[in-house]
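Module 6 notes. Inverse folding takes a fixed backbone as the condition and produces residue identities as the prediction. Think of it as a translation problem where the source language is geometry and the target language is the twenty amino acids. Below is one complete input and output pair. Work through it position by position during the lab.
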């Protein structure tokens, strides 16, 4: 009988990660069947999507509360489906607030529940690990310092590396990126990445534009590129330019092309998040910034365990790049921090070398390692390859 695996992936990043995992599992089990909640990339690998992963996308606490009944209904429907069809295993990809509850119920039904991408228990809400221990049969971690936390709690765990480290080249082609974006003749280029969510762009766009104005006054030959993921965020940034009367600044907005923009840049101003890890894998000097509501920031700061919020600093366990957050993220301070990178090529070379070490550490063939950790729960081994049943 062909193995059947239920999966739930949340948002576009989970869809991509899960699609790579499905492909790796199918290399070992060509007749395997996958179903659950996913997106177009998973479906391209043969996944049967009962619900789209876009249904799970929420933006902040308020949106989550508004959609609680809808999301709870989808989750309970998924649970009933899994209990009825009893697949060989369940894999929850990221989306911990949705998946961990589901995994606990599924595991208690006698079905192995694997969670792919550790929640950030090392950053805040570390008490969640007790609930994780009750919910999951195995945790798959992207970062090398995470497994020790789960081993201490007695949770089976595997370090599988970060998929971006597999995709990004060890030596990015900066001249090709500049040529692609029409920046070959620009002496200085700064990439501005104010986030992917509308709330992030709304908070950071005015500050980033004011920072660009200061740098343009200091360096008349400077250029700025702003990759924006959606039409909505592009309109928000364009409106911020209009309000600031800054449409004459040398700022180019791009549809997507975030990786190209960062590769082409001399330095990057980036909102804290996955984009900061991308900048590190591209060996770019950067300044990490973030702003949110005053009370939300106070709550997050009180609950945080680490002195950093940026993944490059967390992974290197030191202050490799500056972080300017909340009230410290003023245009003057951000411009000064970027200027230090522009004026110190030796420091840029040193940080690129440090990021190269990090890149090699995270480059683990993630999908293949994750598949190898999952196969034993299907009574398979990585070496076992089934033959196709005759039609």
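Target side of the pair, the amino acids:
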């Amino acid at each position: 009988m062909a193995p059947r695996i239920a999966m739930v992936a949340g948002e576009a990043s989970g869809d991509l990660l899960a699609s790579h995992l499905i492909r790796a599992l199918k290399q070992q089990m060509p007749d395997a069947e996958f179903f659950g909640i996913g997106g177009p990339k998973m479906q391209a690998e043969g996944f049967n999507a009962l619900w789209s992963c876009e249904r799970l996308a929420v933006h902040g606490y308020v949106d989550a509360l508004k959609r609680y009944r809808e999301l709870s209904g989808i989750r309970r429907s998924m649970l009933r489906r899994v209990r009825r069809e009893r697949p060989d295993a369940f894999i929850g990809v990221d989306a911990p607030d949705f998946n961990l509850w589901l995994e606990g119920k599924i595991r208690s039904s006698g079905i192995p529940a694997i969670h792919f991408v550790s929640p950030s228990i090392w950053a805040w809400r570390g008490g969640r690990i007790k609930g994780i221990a009750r919910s999951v049969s195995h945790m798959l971690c992207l970062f090398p310092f995470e497994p020790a936390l789960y081993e201490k709690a007695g949770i089976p765990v595997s370090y599988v590396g970060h998929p971006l480290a597999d995709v990004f080249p060890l030596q990015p082609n900066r001249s090709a990126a500049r040529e692609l974006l029409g920046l070959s003749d620009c002496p200085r280029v700064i990439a501005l990445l104010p986030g992917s969510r509308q709330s992030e762009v709304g908070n950071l766009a005015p500050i980033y534009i004011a920072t660009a104005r200061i740098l343009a006054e200091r360096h008349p030959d400077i250029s700025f590129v702003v990759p924006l993921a959606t039409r909505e965020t592009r309109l928000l940034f364009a409106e911020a330019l209009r309000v600031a009367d800054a449409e004459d600044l040398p700022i180019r907005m791009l549809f997507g092309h975030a990786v190209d923009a960062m590769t082409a840049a001399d330095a990057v101003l980036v909102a804290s998040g996955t984009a900061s890890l991308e900048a590190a894998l591209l060996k770019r000097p950067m300044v990490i910034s973030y702003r949110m509501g005053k009370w939300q920031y106070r709550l997050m700061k009180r609950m945080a365990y680490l002195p950093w919020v940026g993944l490059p600093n967390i992974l290197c366990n030191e202050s490799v790049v500056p972080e300017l957050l909340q009230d410290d993220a003023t245009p003057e301070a951000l411009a000064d921090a970027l200027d230090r990178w522009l004026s110190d090529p030796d420091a840029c070379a040193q940080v690129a070398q440090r990021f190269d070490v990090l890149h090699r550490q995270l480059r683990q063939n993630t999908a293949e390692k994750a598949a190898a950790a999952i196969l034993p729960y299907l009574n398979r081994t990585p070496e076992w390859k089934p033959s196709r049943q005759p039609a």
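Reference fact for the lab report: DSSP finds 18 helices and 13 strands in the chain.
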